[in-house]
Amino acid sequence: MTQREIAGVTIDVDDNGYMTDLEQWTKDIAAAFAKEVEIDALTDKHWGVIEYLQKRHKEGVALSIRKVGKSGVVDIKEFYRLFSGGPLKKSSLIAGIPKPVSCV
Amino acid sequence: MANTEEKIKKVSIICAKGALEDVYASLVLTNGARMEGIEANIFFTFFGLSAIRKNKMDKLHTSTVGNPAMEMPGGIPFPTLLGSLPGVEAGVSAMMKKEMEKLDIPPVSEFLEMITASGGKVYACKLAVDMFKVKREDLYDDLDGILTVGDFYEIAAGGQIIFT
Questions:
Q1: Using a CB-CB distance cutoff of 8 angstroms, which residues of chain A are in contact with residue B113?
Q2: Which of the two ends of chain B, N or C, has the fewest CB atoms closer than 10 A to its terminal CB?
Q3: In B, which residues are within 8 Å of A70 by CB distance?
Q4: Residue ranges covered by each domain of chain B
């Protein structure tokens, strides 16, 4: 277990830098993570994806690009556009959930 | 898993075989590259062309003959003679597809759409298209082009080429 400072608070993260306790997550932390992965501003669309990921994570669902694409929140093309350069990993990091383990 | 080596920026994957597992290996590699933000091309040639032929793409089979790694449920070796019986290959292939669906792996047609939506490029080999006498309209709708080997090398420039 590692700790790090972000957005003025200390959070628990794993070896890959993903949050390990969703209770510690705030929107400020999300925005700070977004900047670190070169997403300048989180729009309503981004927040929609983040909320979806957190909801499914709490339900114990392992997420994949395919599931997000079928969520009704965004389609796959939009997902790639919003979180350019690694949509599932970037969105999971920002949403404060573990690093995705899916190969699809 | 921080890596100090230079990251892969671009891959071009050649799918030359049409068995279910060969096609999926190529599709997973291509889609997986896009998931990591890597530019990706996939090029279908020879029997791999089946994966982008509309009437074949979702009916691919895994080989039950000459496949020494085949197992029956429970890990019992699969006798080659059994694999040659009518209907066995279709049955095994259907079972594989069911297991893959459980792992959230889409059918080939949907997988291709995912790759296109992700910005990955899908190409057919001109030689294979001519050889199998396939028409453009029989191929995947969002195909990015039918290429000669020369075109392929141009498109693959600056990246890594993977042959599956």
A1: 76
A2: N
A3: none
A4: 10-65+107-163
